């Protein structure tokens, strides 16, 4: 293993979907013994919830799958994230479009940006739906989508680390 890799997940508020993905991938990285080589982070395109912990419904759902996210705090995405992270992974199509615009605006690496649901073998769907206005069931669906598609991310990271 010759190189470290970094991943940032981006949603709108950074209190539901992206912290869930952050926690899910962090656990997979730890289980794979790769914590010393992979940095995982998350951010929101919006600033409303900066400094807040994840939504309690997201915390409760993640915890029911043995994923702890209560230590995370929301922050807003920074253009420099597009240079600091190898993978900038949007949770839905709007987040993806917003990140692409940010990259173009700042002349940065748009090719690092992807959509989580394009990774791996999970349910074929165009982005992880925003669960904020719905109920606990929506959060469970969101968790299942994130869990399946972050399997694709950890597989890619393993390959990167062994070939990079
Ligand atoms: P997230 O969900 O983008 O998955 O964190 C949302 C959280 C807050 C809001 C929207 C979506 N909001 O409008 O405050």
Could you outline the blueprint of secondary structure elements for this entry?
Blueprint: E1 5-11, H1 17-31, E2 38-44, H2 56-64, H3 81-84, E3 87-90, H4 93-106, E4 113-115, H5 136-163
Parallel strand pairs: 1-2, 1-3, 3-4
Helix pairs in contact: 1-5, 2-5
The structure holds 4-nitrophenyl phosphate (4NP).
Oligomer: single chain
Helix content: 40-55%
Order of helices and strands: EHEHHEHEH
| N-to-C span | 7 Å
Strand order of the largest sheet: 2-1-3-4
By DSSP (H or I, 4+ residues per run), the number of helices equals 5
What radius of gyration results from the CA coordinates? Answer: 15 Å
Can you tag this structure with a few keywords?
alpha/beta, 164 residues, 5 helices, four-stranded parallel sheet, binds 4-nitrophenyl phosphate, 4 strands
Describe the structure.
Helix 1 crosses helix 5 and helix 2 packs across helix 5 (136-163). The chain has five helices and four strands; from the N terminus they run E-H-E-H-H-E-H-E-H. The protein is globular. The chain has a four-stranded parallel sheet. The chain is α/β, with parallel strands linked by helices and 164 residues long. Helices cover 43% and strands 13% of the residues. The chain starts with a strand and ends with a helix. 4-nitrophenyl phosphate (4NP) binds at residues 11-17, 44, 48, 130, 132. 4-nitrophenyl phosphate is lined by residues 11-17, 44, 48, 130, 132.
Question: Could you write a compact summary of the structure shown?
Answer:
Helix content is 43%, strand content 13%. It is an alpha/beta fold.
